[in-house]
Amino acid sequence: MGLNDHQSEWKRFSKSFLFAWNGIIRTVKHERNFQIHLFISLIILLSGSILSLSRIEWIILLFLIGGMLSLELMNTALERAVDLITKDYHPLAKAAKDAAAGAVLVYALLSVIIGLIIFIPKLI
């Protein structure tokens, strides 16, 4: 492999980060649900700082927040892909979008339950 091949690989690799960042920024700007999740995440991070969480509690919360935001990004991607394929109502398109939204809801509920388990004892 020559020097130009390595430079080309590095350029493609670095561009992939730019594309990912652009996807996150676009989602932050245009998706209300993502904005809500981001706002709640900031409140949780602030609350965790105030309540002096343990290292393991921080790790759990960061995984929950990262998972939630990642799942919301995937939900948005799936919705956009379905919309690209058809603007018309189709039962399979609806089923795909509903299932992706359902996955977000399941994870959000799990996150709330775990968050309550972590925060309630700190508040009592």
From TrEMBL:
InterPro entries: DAGK, DAGK_sf, UDPK. This is Diacylglycerol kinase family protein. GO terms for molecular function: kinase activity. It is found in: Cell membrane. The lineage of its organism: Bacteria, Bacillati, Bacillota, Bacilli, Bacillales. Its main location: membrane. It is an enzyme of class 2 (transferase). The chain crosses the membrane at residues 34-52, 58-78, 99-120. CDD domains: UDPK_IM_like (cd14265). It is a multi-pass membrane protein.
